């Protein structure tokens, strides 16, 4: 048992890396399936549209799924129609855009992975660009080839052109090479941007490294405790209600948080360097459950982010 | 069961070395996969760009990943923009210390990129493609032979027999690539050996104390995780209960922001005092309040493992 515990702990410590690797493998698998099963280049004037749709629509779908799966989105938007002041609090209007920007950056990981894998494979780009009618582009690609290239480039992807095999093979290789170089550029840009933004955010953090580590642990345990206490109180309340219903008795009082307390506890947490609160609930409990004061506060990236798979 | 436990203990004791070996193996495997599945030399004037991109860009990406994953980077960077950390240190001292840490972090992060480049050169696909489009190689091989020779040169990566026909005096591109690969590996090994020897010989600490220090760091990190989880559980329980029961929380002491800041400095060794970590120093100098706590900007540690055990916790 000890051995299994150790192995489990090893994997749990690396769950971020494992999660991202799994996502990358899934993207690669999905891209393979798509290009083998679903993708059939039309080899006509429609190449460009077809190729671009296959390249960008799955990315859009993954972006939307990314938004759906991030619980911060729902924390931000729940009840905002009823009370718009919630997302645009007085004196801190940019807070909404800051949080939305963070959610978007997290949701962009899967689409960028898809785009890079699809470009490295080359099939979609090859089909799309072989249908591009731009004369400058055609001059570059069909440089030093026969004149048939200009008219029959869109048939090259299906090997249906009347050009000699060496020429059409070279054209396909050129298009695939362009696609792969573009794919590497996408990956490098994404990696550089994420490193720079994480560095900037880390640099400006008002919280020291070890405290940040403790904070992550606290956030995880608070979530577990909340789940447990929800189960406990829900059981207690439903038992009491059903018992009173069936046995026709008066209900005994059970104390539950008021509506305003729930509203206050559901706000997204912002850190204040003068206080020492690790979450909204911690703050509420220490300052009383009447309401929270709205000061300009900094926001830390990872808080509330752990819910992303 | 006993054997499994023994094997596990072995793995845990040597987890750094095993970790780096795994990273190298994974890099080598991905290179093979890329080489055989993804890489298709275009065999025209784009050879040089295509081959170089496949050789250099993945190495660069692996370097960036190496930086992101190393805990010491974040320990160095977190909260360092407001530069109020070390009051008694000169800015020059802090800068030198940061540079030293940066060099150590870069050395660790370079394992995967150098493995990629070495394996790629040994397989020779990328180099052959890039070199066949290179003007230097063209001048060497096709001395006065004009455009036809250049076109043939472009086609070499796609056609095995061509390379034998073109030049018999010069080494084939494949052989060149493998020679460069072995030379690179030899250089890396030499530099690694020399730098390890130099850093160990400059170590302010004796061999046995160093071993004790390593074990102490690891144990402290393990216990820190356990204690942090325990503390967090207690605090979370108090908070959630008070939220539901609308009562006031019982007094519960948790370290203040200042205390956390004090133990988060990168540890610097001082040969007069005998502290094995920042927490040790903090606890022994009256919770960081005595003047002795502020000293210690001398002898920045060159020892690799200090602060490195936090890499395990930081998500990789």
TrEMBL record, chain A:
It is found in: Membrane. GO terms for molecular function: monoatomic cation channel activity. It holds the Pfam family Ca_hom_mod. GO terms for biological process: ATP export. Its main location: membrane. Keywords: Ion channel, Ion transport, Membrane, Transmembrane, Transmembrane helix, Transport. InterPro entries: CALHM. It comes from the Eukaryota. It is a multi-pass membrane protein. The keyword Transmembrane helix applies. One of its GO terms (cellular component) is plasma membrane. The chain crosses the membrane at residues 20-39, 51-69, 96-120, 181-198. Belongs to the CALHM family. This is CAHM5 protein.
UniProtKB/TrEMBL annotation, chain B:
Keywords: Ion channel, Ion transport, Membrane, Transmembrane, Transmembrane helix, Transport. GO terms for cellular component: plasma membrane. GO terms for molecular function: monoatomic cation channel activity. The chain crosses the membrane at residues 48-69, 179-201. It is a multi-pass membrane protein. It is found in: Membrane. GO terms for biological process: ATP export. The keyword NADP does not apply. It comes from the Eukaryota. PANTHER family: CALCIUM HOMEOSTASIS MODULATOR PROTEIN, CALCIUM HOMEOSTASIS MODULATOR PROTEIN 6. Belongs to the CALHM family. This is CAHM6 protein. It comes from Neopipo cinnamomea. The gene is Calhm6.
